[in-house]
Design goal:
250 residues; alpha/beta; Spore Coat Polysaccharide Biosynthesis Protein SpsA, Chain A; six-stranded mixed beta sheet; 32% helix; 19% strand
Length: 250
């Protein structure tokens, strides 16, 4: 099992810092595991130097040609998430855990490794976040963390068939919507009892107690957070993340 992320953020200090912290947290809890950063462009020098120093591989990848015209509001994001992110993840041949570059690991990954023996693909339902998806009457997975013990399960061509057929996204997100459509049409249960909300938690609802020990706050139930995901407006510089602030003070 290896860990994969994708870093295609602009060469801006706060994004570079975020990627460096991502790598720091991964190496803190996974000192020996193979870690790969996929990128379409040249990784900024400061990030590149840190990754290589910590024995993290940087792998340049190409995107699949885009044959669709998306709504202009989501075009750029859709093209990247489907034809770079999803295309390259679907073409992996070794088992892996995908963790978004804006998600900080706060614990070891033993539960993920144990769970990976039971199913070819595991993900976590998106939390019911106010002003985002709390109003939706259905569950859907969040692709910010995926345990893929059988890479052949994620079939890119079948997802493209869904896109050709629907010409729209039925669930929130772009690549995320396609994965949801795919597993639901298969009737596949992607959940696992060892891999709950704490493994893909919205950072806007996090209470840090001490060091990397954190729990959910404000979502109706309290649970330990293993992976704090700083998606959308909940980036670490917007939510006063203590890990991010500590990094800046160094």
């Amino acid at each position: 099992m290896k860990i994969i992320t994708i870093f295609n953020y602009p060469d801006v200090k706060r994004y570079n810092d975020m990627c460096i912290i991502w790598a720091t947290q991964i190496r803190k809890y996974c000192p020996k595991i193979t870690v790969q950063v996929l990128s379409e462009n040249t990784v900024p020098t400061v990030v590149q130097d840190f990754l290589l120093k910590n024995n993290i591989q940087i792998i340049n990848k190409h995107r699949k040609d885009n044959i669709f015209s998306f709504n202009s509001d989501i075009s750029k994001k859709a093209q990247h998430n489907i034809f770079f992110k999803m295309y390259n993840l679907c073409n992996e041949v070794e088992p892996y855990i995908f963790i978004d570059a804006d998600a900080f690991l706060l614990s070891d990954i033993e539960d993920l490794l144990i769970a990976s023996r039971d199913k070819p693909f595991i993900a976590v339902n998106h939390e019911k976040i106010p002003k985002h998806c709390a109003h939706l009457p259905y569950n859907f997975l969040n692709t910010g963390m995926m345990v893929v013990s059988d890479p052949s399960f994620l079939n890119f061509n079948k997802k493209i068939e869904i896109l050709k057929r629907d010409r729209t996204f039925r669930y929130p997100g772009t690549d995320q919507s396609l994965v949801n459509s795919y597993v639901k049409e298969l009737g596949y249960d992607y959940e696992h009892p060892l891999v709950g909300f704490g493994w893909n938690h919205c950072a806007g609802y996090t209470k840090f107690i001490e060091g990397d020990i954190a729990v959910s706050a404000g979502l109706g139930s309290e649970y330990r957070i293993n992976l704090n995901h700083y998606w959308h407006e909940f980036k670490p510089w917007n939510v006063n993340c203590p890990i991010f602030k500590k990094h800046l003070r160094k």
